[in-house]
Design goal:
The longest helix has 30 residues. The protein is mostly helical and about 140 residues long. Helix 2 packs parallel to helix 5 and helix 5 runs antiparallel to helix 7. The chain is built from 7 helices and no strands. It has one domain. It is flat and about 60 Å long.
């Protein structure tokens, strides 16, 4: 146990590789979405149910939030992994909520209960993961 803790002190990013990769992927997704929404033709904006200006603002928000978490992860900030978890969860909630609000087709509307169940399940999963990380940190400090 002491060897593992000493190795983590030598290489604190070892446990953060997954979160760095996830946040880098989120960064690329948000960047592409922002560029796509900025280049959307005017005649197409009338045909989609999403409000383009809202999508641009939200894409920029998630892009900068992801950059912030990436900076925290690269700087080995104390709560960077926890923040990466909550930003990931927030984005999932936002995405599912957006789907629930802007669906037009009947087959999409039938999935709203299923999406709500997924959101609740993800909330429980991320809460469990956050509490588990907190518990592991307490054990490591003792």
């Amino acid at each position: 146990m002491i060897t593992v803790m000493n190795e983590q002190k030598k290489n604190p990013r070892k446990g953060q590789t997954f979160f760095l990769a996830t946040m880098a992927l989120f960064f690329l997704i948000h960047l592409v979405n922002l560029i796509r929404m900025l280049q959307l033709p005017n005649d197409l904006t009338n045909q989609i149910s999403l409000v383009p200006s809202f999508e641009i603002v939200m894409s920029a928000f998630w892009l900068f939030t992801t950059i912030w978490v990436l900076i925290l992860l690269l700087g080995n900030h104390e709560n960077a992994v926890n923040r990466a978890l909550w930003v990931s969860f927030g984005f999932i909630i936002y995405s599912v909520s957006r789907l629930m609000i802007f669906t037009r087709a009947d087959y999409d509307r039938q999935r709203i209960i299923f999406l709500a169940i997924i959101v609740v399940g993800l909330l429980l999963l991320f809460s469990f993961a956050s509490n588990l990380l907190r518990y592991v940190r307490k054990l490591g400090n003792n």
